[in-house]
Amino acid sequence: MSINWFPGHMAKARREVEENLKKVDVVIEILDARIPHSSHNPMLDEITQHKPRVVVLNKVDMADRKETDAWMARFKSEGKYPVALDGRNNHIIKKIEPLAVRATAEIFERMEKKGIGRRAIRAMIIGIPNVGKSTVINNIAKKKIAKTGNTPGVTKQQQWIKAGEQMELLDTPGILWPKFEDEITGRKLSLTGAIKDAVVPLDEVAIYGIEFLLAHDPERFNQFYNINVSPSDEIVDVFDAIGKSRGLKAGGNEINYEAVTNRIIYDIRNGKIGGYTFDKADA
Ligand code: GDP
């Protein structure tokens, strides 16, 4: 679920995240593996400053594996601790916890030198809406605690939940807003379900998706829709071909373009056509 972000929401969300940051040793940032750049709000870098960062490339099941590997390498080179996973799978804590341990090793060494006794690593999950924050928290907690929906500013009593052997996790995630640098970012956010359908015109989102998939792997695209189009075809011809193949008519023989648009977006959002990564790691 996504919300409309107004300046008041943003200020409140930022304040909440800043407050919670004071309580933790490490930040676990959840990104959508299909858009690791576009699902990151750069504000986080500003407010976390030098806090160690575990980066979860979530929804890896719907991303391009090669690109995910390239993103992993990039995050490592930036001094972050990345992991790629499907937040719905069991035992994700076994992947996340060792990274949090490594990320905070120096902090705890320093504490030990000062004679401060060992305590659990404290962590919080942060990310923009719909990247899978609640899924990850509920999965680690083994019960439903993270509230669904994303309403910043609705405070609730926070609790620490046990996460693995050495870690404690705040049970409410930090929510940041999706940041649009440009139209293309908006389309990518919409295509992956991070922002509401009303924010970016859906025909532009569908056209962007078609162009990306056709440029990337025309054969897979054609096979999926049982059509025969090429990247150089007019976009309306691609819509017509899909409409015909899928029987999306508006009465008579007219193609129902709205239905085609919705179908394409649905298929891409849900990974039906295969794994794609829309942000390039080497860009
Ligand atoms: P939040 O807004 O960041 O808390 O996101 P949610 O946890 O509510 O997840 C948003 C949607 O993504 C839900 O429909 C989840 O079931 C789905 N989801 C979460 N993680 C994954 C994943 O790794 N793979 C897939 N395919 N879907 C996921």
TrEMBL record:
Residue span, CP-type G domain: 14-178
Keyword hit for Lipid biosynthesis: no
Database matches in Pfam families: MMR_HSR1
One of the GO biological process terms: translation
Main location group: cytoplasm
Keywords annotated in UniProt: Cytoplasm, GTP-binding, Nucleotide-binding
Molecular-function GO terms, alphabetical: GTP binding; GTPase activity
Domain of life of the native organism: Bacteria
Gene Ontology, cellular component aspect: cytoplasm
Keyword Nucleotide-binding: yes
Chain positions recorded as GTP binding sites: 58-61, 130-135, 174
CDD domains registered for this protein in UniProt: YlqF (cd01856)
Identification of the protein by name: Ribosome biogenesis GTPase A
Subcellular location: Cytoplasm
Family: Belongs to the TRAFAC class YlqF/YawG GTPase family. MTG1 subfamily.
